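As agreed, record minuted below.
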Amino acid sequence: MTTGQKQRMIQEYVPGKQVTMAHIIPNPQGNLHERLGIGGNGALGIMTITPSEAAIIAADAASKAGNVEIGFVDRFTGSLVLTGDVADVDAAVRAAVNTLVSVLGFSAPEVTRS
C-alpha cells in the first residue's frame, strides 16, 4: 500500500441464526473494564450473535438469569458484554445461549472460559 491511500475494509455477515462466541473472563486483569468503557468490576461475559438484533433478546434473557449488569449491547454488531460476579455471569451467558438455541433455533458453540 502506498502512502496516502486509505485502507479499505469489507465486513461480511454469514446468513443464519448463530451465536458465534460465548466466553467468560472470570478475573479480568488490570483496567479492562475501563478500557472497554463500561462501569463495574468482576467477571466479564462476552457474546457475539447473528443476526445482530438477537443481541437484544440475549441481553434480556441474561439479565433475567443472574444479577448482572449489561455493560454493552449493540443491535448493529450483535455484541453483548455482561459484568458481575463469576457465578451470575456464567448463569447469564448460559441462559442467553439456551434461550437463543431452544426458543429461536440458533446454533451455538460451547461456552468457553479463560
Helices lie at 32-36, 54-65, 86-102. DSSP finds three helices and five strands in the chain. The first strand starts at residue 18 and ends at 25. The chain has a mean pLDDT of 90.
